[in-house]
Design brief:
With 125 residues, this protein is an all-beta fold. Helices cover 0% and strands 46% of the residues. The chain has no helices and 11 strands. The strands form 2 sheets. Strands 2, 4, 5, 6, 9, 10 and 11 form a 7-stranded mixed beta sheet that branches. Strands 1-3-8-7 form a 4-stranded antiparallel beta sheet, with no helix packed on it. It is globular, with a radius of gyration of 13 Å.
Length: 125
């Protein structure tokens, strides 16, 4: 069972930045495509960003495109840097891992088998 732990959330002012981290406990981390999703109260889970394991292909959700960056390192950690935060970015942010997604299916949460517990990001106006 793969395990992911997110960190880096908190209270941020609108216009500010946040860097989220997701540490994965797997020896085969590089095989997995990793994704970030978020869920705000009363809303469906939304795709934020994804990065493939094999060739580093990256995709972003429309709501964060242009102000977000997803990266991964060799130490089993994936990061999500978001800037110019808006109050509508307030949500619980989850990282997820999948061996099945490709660059065309990053947005499908059902394709991700392993999920972290989430980290809360609150953007104040």
């Amino acid at each position: 069972q793969e395990r992911m732990v997110e960190s880096g959330g908190g209270l941020v002012q609108a216009g500010g930045s946040v860097r989220l981290s997701c540490a994965a406990s797997t020896r085969t981390f590089n095989w997995y495509s990793m994704g970030w999703f978020r869920q705000a109260p009363g809303k469906e889970r939304e795709f934020v960003a994804g990065i493939s394991g094999s060739d580093g292909i990256i995709r972003y959700g429309d709501a964060v495109k242009g102000r977000s960056s997803i990266t991964r390192d060799a130490a089993n950690t994936v990061y999500l840097q978001m800037s110019d935060l808006k109050t509508e970015d307030t949500a619980i942010y989850y990282c997820a891992a999948s061996l099945l997604v490709n660059e065309n299916t990053f947005g499908d949460a059902n394709a991700f088998a392993f999920w972290g517990q989430g980290t809360q990001v609150t953007v104040s106006s």
